[in-house]
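2024-03-11 09:14:02 DEBUG pipeline.ingest accepted 1 chain
2024-03-11 09:14:02 DEBUG pipeline.ingest length=380
2024-03-11 09:14:03 DEBUG pipeline.predict start
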Amino acid sequence: MKIGFLYNHDALHQVSHTAPVIAALARDRRAEVTVLTSSDAQATRVRELIGGQAAATVRFVALDIGPLSRLLDAGLRWIAPFRRVAVLRENLPEFARLDALVVPETTSLMLRDRFGLTDLKYVWIPHGAGDRSVGFRSVMKGFDLVLLSGTKVRDRMLAMGLVKPDNHAIVGYPKFETVDLTRRPRLFGDDRPTILYNPHFDPLLSSWYPWGEAVVDAIVARGDVNLAVAPHVMLFQRRIHASVEHRRLHWRRDLPPRWQRRPGLIVDPGSPRSIDMSYTLGADIYIGDASSQIYEWIARPRPAIFLNPRSIGWRDDPSFAHWHLGEVVDDLADLGPAIDRALVDPYRFDAVQRDAFARTFDRSARPAAERAAEAILSLA
């Protein structure tokens, strides 16, 4: 079975969600694996995650686009993912030779719906296990196989008719096989508690645009905690963020110069530590809004605070189920007291977080990558 793994994104955060499955398939004689990447950085990251022996077994293909597309992309990359679509359109022969294509996103369905590759089997492994409505759209009905992390996501997708009983499987979370969850990275040189501020880039849901600077300034001014600002890696990949779903547009401002070289403050706009769980494993208190990283955070239960600057009615909305895992702040003036409560009573939400983690991630004794590989091979 000829199986392709596609990495076609501006950043590297999606790679770890599917790369472990490559290593599992590389050990199976029934599979002939091709890794298709649209940047050298993606190929390097895949090789790092799967190891030298697996990398020597699989075929790597660098996907490129023509001069005109590169010219257009130079002007559009800060606004829209033009290059991603061009990569699909201009490399059809590579995709056509495959039996199945494994992806961590949904844009790749254009290969079938717009570019006519109807014989290819499409496999989706979501890059994250969060609650945002964008992760539960009708486009997902187009996949031949959907591999999910646990019952929480599965049950919601079944209820919405996005998957059928016979086209999905719960396999666990392959990304966890790339990380030592017992690791405690030391983010600062002192013993003060560390807060992680992890805003999303979504124009409607992100706290960064209305409150971001004020949040950082208020926490830094306390003087009794350290702060790591590590947004979703895509926040600083583009200047303009647009949401077709929410019909919103936001201009992302530059980081204020006053934050440079401030003691007790790290601002990371997208280093490797933003995608390898260094911050979620190393901090003591989480502050965020819509990122699925909250579910990686509760691998070890700790305080969480969610920012709601637009007064969204969230309590009965499954797209905000994660906001039940901590305090929700509707008024910026309440952030300080919420941090104080988290410092005094860090175990307040442990029980609900443990329950959410168990429903979100199936932690079978068998590795998630092996279970995913077996499910993909069943398509043959």
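2024-03-11 09:14:41 DEBUG pipeline.report The longest helix spans residues 208-222.
2024-03-11 09:14:41 DEBUG pipeline.predict end
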